Amino acid sequence: MLNFYNFLLRFILSFCVFSGLLFTHAYAENNLTVSSVDAINKITPLPHTILYPEEHIIELAGYPALMYFSLGNVDKPLIIFVPGGYNLARIAYGTPNTKASDYLAYWFNQKGFTFLGLSYPLDNKVFSDVYPGFTIKDWAAQIIDAVKLQIDTHQLPKTFVMLGWSMAGKAVNQVNALAKENGLDMIYISLSSDPSIRGLASTELFEQLIKTPTAKGLSSDHSLIPWFLNQIHEQNKLNQHVIINDSTYIQDIMGDQPVDLLATSTRFENNTFIKDTNITLTDTLAMDYDAYPMLGLIHGDYRSDYINALFTRFDWSPMLARAVYNSLTQKMHLDELSEQEWNGLKKIIEHAPQIMSREVHGNHLFFLGQTGAEQTVTAVQSLLAMRDQILNIHSSADLCTFTGKFKQQLQGDEPNSAFCINHNDSTVNSLFLTH
């Protein structure tokens, strides 16, 4: 009998040790620290978390981030989805109890794209701590570290696409600056996103978000929960089924956020809140219009998100027009253009926000639900193809060809405008009409 108990005790101890090793292995798989992209082999566990399949907590730029990654065709550019305020990137790839086809990640994968969803640290149960001092520059550094990690690991193209939803537009210039420093070419696609200058001045919405910071020094999501839930319910109705239930959305996707990411004059510095617009302008690089990357715009059409349905094209038009101009004038000199070619160039710049914009039926979450998700991916492909056409204008002859293709659209209500037209090419490019 004593021998039996000794055997049983040894069996239990062995089982516990073995279980511990299994737990440690699984834990380390989903909780990673990468202090340097060049030292990816040095992985150590981070504390906490409740993770979905294909998710990892990884340290980037000195802060934890939630990363979701799905590899596609390595010849296509990486797509990185960056969420807006108070939301994890799960809004783009879903939760285990929902339909994959209701989310962007599924449709990008269907088209062969590699998809990366990256969440900055929110006050959500997936993170073990909060970081009230997290800035736009920190956010941009996380984005570039994550992109470079996946590009280097999987030998992906050096050109990548940042899909920025809502508040993520405030990080664009910092991300683009860091991309250039790392030898990367960034394309920005706005999903009803805010340019950095939107909200910089005091508005009722932004004042509400910053006037009652939480005890942890964060901006609270409480005042926005009803609005976000209404957006979810409208998308449910549009797709004729419940995409995600309210409790899952609030608990698994939402959370209070660092106040600096709102990019208002209110900042969190040295453990206290201050007012300093100059720090915010430095953090966002908002006023450097010439530094914006080539970009495209996608927005919904619902009145419940009227700010983006009505104004997205106009809010982004100065940056977009300059990006197109900078691309074109790198390859040709203005003083070498004929009068007709000059008129053609003016029309392209004038209509750049129209050429590089697409509308998808829906609200601020137009990309949520199968219909909107699939249409959004189609719109992204259309914008990427349009960008390629613009970048392929290397000479005045190319300019002729491009303006010829878009003669009808670019002339608008001015049928007698002088245009440089290549009479051998009467094709009207269907990509312009794709929505």
Provide an overview of this structure.
The chain is α/β, with parallel strands linked by helices and 435 residues long. The chain folds into 2 domains: 33 residues; 347 residues, 3-Layer(aba) Sandwich (Rossmann fold). It is 42% helix and 14% strand. It contains 15 helices and 13 strands. The strands form 3 sheets. A 9-stranded mixed sheet has the order 1-2-3-5-4-6-7-12-13, with helices on both faces. It has a two-stranded antiparallel sheet with strand order 8-9. The chain has a two-stranded antiparallel sheet with strand order 10-11. The longest helix has 29 residues. The termini are far apart. The N terminus and C terminus are likely disordered.
Provide keyphrases for this structure.
2 domains, single chain, 15 helices, globular, disordered N terminus
In short:
This protein is of the alpha/beta class. Helices cover 42% and strands 14% of the residues. It is built from 15 helices and 13 strands.
Helix content: 40-55%
Q: Can you count the helices?
A: 15
The CATH architecture classification of the largest domain is 3-Layer(aba) Sandwich
Oligomer: single chain
Principal-axes shape call? globular
State which percent range the strand residues make up.
Answer: 5-15%
Task: Determine the CATH superfamily of the largest domain.
Answer: Alpha/Beta hydrolase fold, catalytic domain
What CATH first level of the largest domain would be assigned?
Alpha Beta
Rg, nearest Å: 24 Å
Uncertain segments are 1-48, 413-419, 421-435
